[in-house]
Amino acid sequence: MDRLLEILTDLRPDVDFETEKSLVDDNIFDSFDIISLIGAIDEEYDIEIGVEDIVPENFNSAESIDELIQKYLQ
Questions:
Q1: Which of 43, 65, 68, 74 lies at a C-alpha separation of 20 to 30 Å from 36?
Q2: 53-66, pLDDT tens digit by residue?
Q3: Half-sphere exposure (CA, 13 Å, Cβ side) for 20?
Q4: Where are the domains of the chain?
């Protein structure tokens, strides 16, 4: 989770990812942010997130993003 928080902070240093729970729902993340994040996750964790998992609930918080990553790492 620490590495994910670093990636998120690099992407959007203005957001407190430890407390924010509505990144997509509150329009904090736009489509470009999500595409950039997916690219960084793919590169860092050597996984490829499927299009079926690119849904708002998977990107609303650091916790939900981490759960998605863990799903692909298993």
A1: 74
A2: 999 999 999 999 99
A3: 22
A4: 2-73
Q: How confident is the model at residue 36 (pLDDT cuts 50, 70, 90)?
A: very high
Residue 1 near residue 41 (C-beta atoms within 8 A): no
For residue 66, which amino acid is it? D
DSSP letter for each residue of 47-66: ----GGG-SGGGSSSHHHHH
Fold of 2-73: 1.10.1200
Running DSSP on this structure, what letter comes out for residue 64? H
Kindly state the DSSP code that residue 52 receives in the 8-state scheme: G
Greatest distance between any 2 Cα atoms in the chain: 32
Dihedral over Cα of 29, 36, 31, 55: its sign: negative
